[in-house]
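Feature request, filed as a ticket because there's no other form

It would be nice if the structure record came with a short human-readable summary line next to the tokens. Right now we just get the raw output. Example of a typical job, pasted below so the devs can see what we mean:
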Amino acid sequence: MLQKPFREYRGVGKIISFSGTEVACEFILQQFSSGRQVVVCASQDPSAWSLVKEYGQKRQVRSSFEGSLEGSMTRVAINLMDLAMVTHQSTQNGREPFEFEFHPLTPVRIEYEQTEPNLQVEYRRGVTNLLFVGTQWVEKANRRYLSRIPLKIQGRDICLEWLEPYEDVKRRLTEGTGIEITAELVTRAPVADRIWITEAFDNICVLLSFATGTWISGAYEDYSLNDHLIGTILLAAKTVPYSHAYPVIQTVTGRTLKEYLETTYPNYLQTKGSLGLDVVIEYLVHSKSSMLLEVKYLIGIIGMECLTSHFLSYSRTKRGATQFTEPYTILNALYRFLTKSKLPDRKTFRTYLEALFKDISMPYEPSDLDFIKIRGPLVHTGRFPNGKDPLKNS
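Raw output as currently delivered:
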């Protein structure tokens, strides 16, 4: 069954090959609920032959794109896209326009109108695979739903809100293993703060991924002024099918998720760079969703190797600094997962972990580090050591 696009845009534009070929075309831009994006360009421009020849001569044809939506001055721009397919379409008059299918590799920027940097606008980011119960009631179509969680992040108000039709999307996710855009992050801020807002949304998505055990990606960002859409960015997101595996936080309790995000966010910012936590968390979340136990273990090992590689820098910058004692700090949660997941074996790895736990006043038992003996045999043979139960050690 063909998947219907989540969003669709049509207009005219120009393909600009990195070899210098320019091709005028009509285009259809589609984004699907999985976050996947496709640009289909139909062209009778004679220069299209040059693009076809270029596609036939080498495996990879990279281009940029600029255009406008039909019937408007709305600008569409893509800095980098990959040519995936070329086809012909026969017509009654004998002309055969070429049809080019491109996959954007960078965000698609749609600008409806220009704005001043000091204007207050509403930012909305659509996110995938997030299922939660809110803390605030919202009334829609004469019904009330606990569908919103207000957050205070670095002194700013940000909300998590269901995206309708939430119940239908939730049912599809929980009954299958697909990817769906389920919710939005919402805030208000000046146009000049767009970079800060984008980074804050990115950080929240990483923390939500760690909390829920499924990778949560941003699919788009909309910018509105007085309920009038002024800009959209279709994000080049990495999306992964929904997973039920091992949540750290039970999102059925909105208050718990709110406390987790507001408490961990400042600690995550403190250690994101020095411990590479954004990369570490991504590896750990992906390891949880892997079906093959050996792959699950090895992906987790890479995450732990990243963590230990960053440790010396962390110890130099954080020794003697703030102690992480709050119940939902990101390092507390990481510690619980890592000692349960039994990850890597390195000559000085035990020393690194012992020093890290001491540095952040993290209690642990010596037996928590007994996993170190597993990595070597698994890396060299691709199998768990004899006598080690894969289910128990993954």
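Something like this underneath would help us a lot:
Residues 320-328, 337-347 have pLDDT under 50 and may be disordered.
The CA atoms of residues 275 and 310 lie 5 Å apart.
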